[in-house]
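stage 2 :: seqdesign
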């Protein structure tokens, strides 16, 4: 099975991360595949809604750290990552996410681009960027404070405090919390409800509500430039080494 599974359910384009043996840690190839799927969904008139999902026990463990180590040595962030982040920010149709288990790093920050997030009662959101000598990405330094206020965003993005599904709902990131066995069905039902609405009206309303995509892309690019610097920093190299040694 491919690491990214793309399928259609009527007017719904489903993108499922499918690398459960590595807890859906994202490789550059996976970023590329998701970016392509999102870009193509944006151009396809028959697609009215996008649904992002992971495995039953884990949504996404963030970036594959081996890729991060390689990028740190090269002093650059992989182009597929930037392409994926831009695709999220530029996508004009509604996005729904079905989140179960861990949503780490970009597994959490991609949710800030979604319009409806359905979480299982096992979901945990965590962004350990700063503890790895890095910083928030995916436009989260802009979107998270707007959504949940500076203090809660600081706890999540800088201090690395985790959020349970119910805490994420209280913070405004998650719309509904359901039992794990019901997650996929509930998320699909929400996507179908949205997809049944007049598509053009939905897109216009969404654009007005979310504001300028250019502003988000500009923030993503600023984060990327700082991220490159942090990747090559002594702090990040020491944090990566400690993490990888702990795993051995």
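stage 2 :: out
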């Amino acid at each position: 099975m491919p690491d990214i599974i793309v399928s259609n359910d009527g007017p719904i384009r489903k993108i499922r991360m499918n690398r459960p043996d590595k807890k859906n840690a994202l490789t550059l190839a996976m970023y590329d595949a998701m970016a392509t799927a999102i870009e193509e969904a944006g151009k396809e008139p028959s697609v009215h809604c996008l649904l992002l999902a992971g495995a039953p026990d884990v949504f996404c463990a963030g970036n594959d750290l081996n890729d991060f180590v390689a990028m740190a040595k090269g002093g650059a962030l992989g182009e597929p990552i930037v392409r994926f982040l831009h695709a999220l920010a530029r996508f004009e149709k509604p996005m729904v996410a079905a989140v179960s288990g861990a949503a780490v790093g970009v597994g959490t920050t991609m949710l800030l681009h979604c319009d409806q997030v359905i979480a299982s009662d096992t979901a945990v959101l965590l962004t350990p960027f700063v503890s790895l000598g890095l910083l928030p990405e995916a436009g989260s330094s802009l979107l998270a404070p707007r959504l949940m206020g500076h203090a809660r965003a600081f706890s999540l993005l800088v201090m690395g405090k985790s959020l349970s599904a119910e805490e994420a709902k209280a913070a405004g990131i998650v719309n509904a919390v359901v039992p794990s066995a019901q997650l996929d069905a509930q998320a699909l039902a929400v996507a179908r409800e949205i997809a049944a609405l007049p598509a053009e009206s939905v897109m216009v309303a969404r654009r007005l509500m979310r504001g300028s995509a250019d502003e988000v892309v500009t923030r993503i690019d600023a984060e990327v430039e700082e991220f490159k610097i942090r990747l090559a920093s002594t702090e990040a190299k020491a944090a990566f080494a400690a993490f990888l040694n702990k795993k051995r």
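stage 3 :: structure notes
- The first helix runs from residue 28 to 43.
- The first strand starts at residue 4 and ends at 9.
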